[in-house]
Amino acid sequence: MRLNIALLQLLPEAGLDRQLKKGAAACLAAKRMGADIALFPEMWSSGYVLPRESGDADVSAVGAGSEFVRAFGRLALELRMAVGITFLERHEPGPLNSLILFDRHGEERLHYSKVHTCAFDAEKVLSPGDGFRVADLDTDRGTVRVGAMICFDREFPESARILMLKGAEVILAPNACPMEINRLSALRTRAYENMLAVATCNYPKGHPDCNGRSTVFDGVAWLRDEPDVRDMCILEAPEEEGIYVARIDMDMLRDYREHEVMGNKYRHPDRYGILSQTE
C-alpha cells in the first residue's frame, strides 16, 4: 500500500472567502496529482494571522461547524480524498489552533487543537488543546491510523510519543515557521524514535517568518536486506509556493515496525515517573 500525501504549501489570500476558494482549487489539483490526503499549513483560515487581543478573536475565528470548515468536508466527499483543513477555532476563553481531518466520505475523522501553543509570543491569546488523538482513516488504498500535531508540538517528544502509543502510523503536522536544520532534525527524530511517518506542511517563502521546505519523513531508517542506513526524508519541498506530493510505502513501514526496536518495543515506563510530575 502506498499512501500519497499532498502538502499544500500555499501563500494565503486576504479574507475567508478567498482562502476557501484558493484552498478548494489546491485540493482539486492535489486530487489530480493522485493524493489520498491533502494537508494545509497551520491555521489556513486566517493565513496564520492571530488576533492581538483575546476579544478580537470573535471577528477572526470560525466555528468547527462553520461554512468555511464544512465546505472542505463536502469537497472531501466530492473528490473522494481526505482533507486536513486548519483554522482558528472559536472557543472560550480563547480561540484554538485547530485541524479537522475529513475522510473521503466527507466525515470528520479527527479534530485536534494545538496543545503546545506558543504562549511566549503571539499565541498567548489562544487556549491550548486538551490532548492528542488518533483515528483510522479509510482511503482508496486501505486504512491508515493517523494522528496530528501542530508546529511547536514538534519540540516536545511527548507529542509524537503519545500518538505512537495510541497506534499512529502517520502524523500530520501543519506548520508556520522557518524550517531550518534544528526544526527539521526534530521532525526527523520524531519519525525515527517512534517508527512512524511525519508529514509537515509549511507556508512558502513570501509569507512572514516562513520559508517553505515542507517535508515528509517516512520513519524507516534501514532495511534488513540493505547494508547501509537510508534517508528517511522522502520529500523536502523547495521554498516556493506549490503542491508537493509524497508517496509513503505503508507496507515497508509496517514491516519495519514489526521487526525493529524503536517505538514501544523496549521502553521502561515504570522508570519515567518524573515525566508526569507538574512541579
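the 2nd protein, sequnce then structure:
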Amino acid sequence: MTRLLLLGPAREAAGVRHDEFDASTVDEVLRLAIERYGAHFERILAVSQVWVNGEVATPSDPVHPNDEVEVLPPVSGG
C-alpha cells in the first residue's frame, strides 16, 4: 500500500494525517483520496504541491508499496 501524508489544510479537509491506498500512480492515489475525502479536499489539492518520497511528483509518476505521497498545501504567514 502507498502511504498518503497530508499536511496543514489538506489534513484538516480530510480529517486524517495519513492514509493508505492501493494504487499504481500518483494520479490514482489522489483520485482515490478525493473519492474518500470529498470536494473540500479536492479544492485544497488543486492548489497544493504533491511529492513522492521527498521529490516533486507528476500525476503520471508510478508509486509502489511503501512509497509516501505527500500533499503540501501553500503556506501563508507573516
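The helical segments are 8-14, 26-37, 39-46. The chain has three helices and five strands.
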